[in-house]
Structure formats: structure tokens, C-alpha cells
Specification:
It is a single chain. The protein is α+β, with helices and mostly antiparallel strands and about 325 residues long. The chain folds into three domains: about 60 residues, no CATH class; about 100 residues, no CATH class; about 120 residues, LigB-like (Protocatechuate 4,5-dioxygenase, Chain B), CATH 3.40.830.10. It is built from nine helices and 14 strands. It has a six-stranded mixed beta sheet, with no helix packed on it. Strands 1-2 form a two-stranded antiparallel sheet. The chain has a two-stranded antiparallel sheet with strand order 3-4. A hairpin with a 3-residue loop joins β12 and β13. The longest helix has 16 residues.
Length: about 325
């Protein structure tokens, strides 16, 4: 079953037509389902566990539904869909400052500590909040029973809100956030026409930036241009299966420099990153395939358009989750 090039699951049917995922230790030498689009979320049954088999459970449910079989909701579908990010920049730290008031240093939130992050459902933003500048974070807590009772902080304004997983809309003090069930119901819908461009990594970075400039007029026709990659992507340095790894200094330094250039509209150093962004570039971008999509996106930007970062954080010490949004989000209301 495939939804896109990066969203797929391989399975077999037994003699009774019952599907079984290709699973390491059961019927294959490795798990054969993708985590793309779900891998940023915590394990909903054990937040401290790196076990990702819950994604396999979700895929099996999707496959059974596609085959017309009866299914039951997974036990975790009503829980808030929560991810973990790190305090990786001053922009993340700033709204948390007041939480440190009156606390001794060991009890304070510090750079590279972990936070919880959640995502607001469509039309779920609090009344009066700007959807394009709204991202809820809170100090890390591994007890999901407390998430709905905690105060969550909007990273952009510093205002505090509660979250809920019921209803369809937010209120003045509450955001309706996505549940794991919401995320899974969105996941398999492949009803939006998509054209994918392959990246020729043998071409210089300027080649990719120029393509971005050429396809920029498509935005005027209502076409969304998405570049899928990572500003920092070093799998050799990634903390595979280990305890939470603080972001490496070179990863933070490179990401911060990229952010500064994006905010100032200086595209030339971003294009010539190999020569202009210092020694950290060799570690942050050991291969170009994950960095080059950024050049397509900034190639479509006009000088007057703002740049925002709806999602931030570093995973495994060496993979940046930074999301770059050009322009303002369209509203349906």
C-alpha cells in the first residue's frame, strides 16, 4: 500500500486473505513500513520508548480499511498527538523565560532541554489567535494524563492556553489540538493532485535555486510549492536508538546561521552554502539531497514576503526539524 513515494507499507496476505505487515523477526529481515509524516510524534503508549511499532499498528488498520475489512479504533487515537522538540534557539527560549521566575537554576528550563509540542486542528486555534503565527509548546512531561491540565505557551506571543481534544473549534483560552486519531485520518487521504520533481544532485546549487525562480509564477495560480528535506541532516552522527541526544553545537550553529539569512533575505550565501557557511556546512550537509529543496522554496520568494518557522527543533542531535514557511498562510474564514 503506497500513499506517496515516502509513505508506504508492504504486507502479505495469508491463505484467508488476512494482511500481515512485513515485520522484522516475524516474516522479514526488517520492518517495511514508513514513518514519514508520523515519526515526529511520541510513542502514544510509552512516551519514553523509542519503539515505533505503533506506526505499524496504524498502517495495518489503514490496510484493513482499504481492503474493506472491519476495524476497531486503536486504543491511543483519542490522545493528543504530541511531539518532542528541544530548546534549540533564543526564539524557542524566549516565551519560556517567565516559567523560570523564582526557580533555582537546576529547576529552570535551559538551552537544549526538551519540550512538548502539539499541532492545532483546522479551525481549532483560540479565538483571536493568528494561525500563521501560532505554535504551542510546554515543558517536557512524560505523563499524557496531565497534558490536558497543563498550561501550553504560544511560542510567538508568550500567551498561555489549555488544550482540548473534543469539539471542532477553539475558544478564547483553549486550542483544539489534533489527536493521534486525527493525524491518522488525515494520513491516508491521497485526493490532492501532486506533481513531484526529482532532484539532480549532480547539478550545482545555483541550478536548483534558478528552477525555484522559474516555477514561482505557479504560486499565483494557487499552487502550493513544498520542498521536503532538512536544513541539517547527518545520519552518521544521528543518535540511533539511544537516549535523547542534545543537539550538536555544529548543528545549532549552522541552523541558526541559515535562519538569520532567511530572515534578512540574503539568498546568495544560502545558495553558495558550501563556501559561504563555514566548516559547519560539511557536517550539517554531508550530502546535498536534503538541503537542496530549501533552494527551490526560497527561489519562489518575493522580497516583500515574510519568512516564519512554524516547527522547530533538532532530533537525534543531528537532524533539524526546522520548517520554513514563505508568505502568510491562507485562511478559510
Amino acid at each position: 500500500m503506497a500513499i506517496s513515494a515516502k509513505r508506504y507499507a508492504l504486507f502479505l496476505k495469508d491463505k484467508n486473505g488476512i494482511p500481515a505487515l512485513l515485520r522484522r523477526g516475524a516474516n522479514n529481515d526488517g520492518d517495511r513500513w514508513s514513518e514519514h509524516g508520523l515519526g515526529h510524534l511520541l510513542n502514544p503508549t510509552d512516551q519514553e520508548s523509542a519503539d515505533r511499532h505503533w506506526i505499524g499498528q496504524a498502517w495495518l488498520n489503514m490496510i484493513c480499511k482499504a481492503l474493506g475489512m472491519l476495524t476497531q479504533n486503536l486504543v491511543f487515537e483519542e490522545r493528543p498527538a504530541v511531539g518532542r522538540v528541544s530548546v534549540s534557539s533564543p526564539a524557542v527560549m524566549r516565551p519560556l523565560a517567565k516559567l523560570n521566575d523564582g526557580k533555582q537554576y537546576p529547576e529552570q528550563i535551559k538551552p537544549f532541554n526538551f519540550l512538548l509540542s502539539c499541532h492545532v486542528r483546522v479551525f481549532g486555534h483560540p479565538t483571536g489567535a493568528a494561525p500563521e503565527h501560532f505554535h504551542l509548546i510546554t515543558p517536557y512531561n512524560n505523563n499524557p494524563a496531565q497534558w490536558l491540565q497543563m498550561n501550553w505557551i504560544d511560542q510567538y506571543t508568550g500567551k498561555t492556553y489549555r488544550i482540548t481534544t473534543t469539539g471542532h473549534h477553539g475558544t478564547r483560552q483553549t486550542a483544539r489540538v489534533k489527536t493521534y486519531g486525527d493525524a491518522l485520518r488525515e494520513y491516508p487521504k491521497a485526493d490532492i493532485p501532486v506533481v513531484q520533481l526529482s532532484i539532480d544532485e549532480t547539478q550545482p546549487p545555483s541550478f536548483h535555486y534558478e528552477i525555484g525562480q522559474r516555477i514561482a509564477p505557479l504560486r499565483d495560480e494557487g499552487i502550493l510549492i513544498v520542498g521536503s528535506g532538512n536544513v541539517v541532516h547527518n545520519l552518521h552522527a544521528y543518535a540511533w536508538g539511544q537516549h535523547p541526544q542534545e543537539p550538536y553545537e555544529w548543528a545549532i550553529a549552522f541552523e541558526q546561521r541559515v535562519r538569520e539569512l532567511l530572515l534578512s533575505g540574503e539568498n546568495a550565501p544560502l545558495v553558495a552554502y558550501e563556501n559561504k557557511l563555514g566548516s559547519e556546512a560539511k557536517l550539517a550537509v554531508p550530502t546535498p539531497d536534503h538541503y537542496l529543496p530549501l533552494l527551490y522554496v526560497i527561489g519562489t520568494r518575493t522580497q516583500s514576503e515574510p519568512v516564519t518557522f512554524p516547527v522547530e527543533g533538532v532530533d537525534g542531535g543531528s537532524i533539524s526539524m526546522l520548517t520554513v514557511q514563505v508568505g502568510t498562510a491562507l485562511s478559510c474564514v
